[in-house]
Amino acid sequence: MTSFVALLRAVNVGGTGKLPMADLKAMAEAAGLQRVSTYIASGNLLFHSPLGEADVKALIEARLADHAGRPVGVMVRTAAEMAAVLAANPFAHEAPNRTVAIFLDGPPPADAIAKARLRRDEAIALGRREIYVHYGEGMGQSKLVIPAAAAGTARNMNTVAKLAELAAIP
């Protein structure tokens, strides 16, 4: 049985994709996922499953599409991978609420940083299946566009740390 974290894209952020976390939890339990819980209202699902990553991703995305009537992107990481994302944060010395990991389905393209636009004081680094960004002035002031991140979903490092902690509970 593997412990997973599923990160939903564009759910309960900026008035888009409303999905009560109680509904998400019930949906996951009905799909056969075990020890299901959510963390904050931005689409963070923790669960255990004997299935592999690709299978749980497909299962959750299918349930969400049925519920929402449109595709909802889901990035899935094991508990160990979530801990590794936290440990690999190249901006660990910076404020965690101004640093995000943008989770992707696959490795970011090598030119992801070069193709970023409207960059001011943001620092960008590539991870295994993530793009890390430190927003010096905060996200609210940033106009940064990272085309490689368009299909991903971001979580600040406070959230990443909490999800890693919760996912590690046996």
TrEMBL record:
Transmembrane segments: none annotated. It comes from the Bacteria. It holds the Pfam family DUF1697. This is DUF1697 domain-containing protein. The lineage of its organism: Bacteria, Pseudomonadati, Pseudomonadota, Alphaproteobacteria, Hyphomicrobiales.
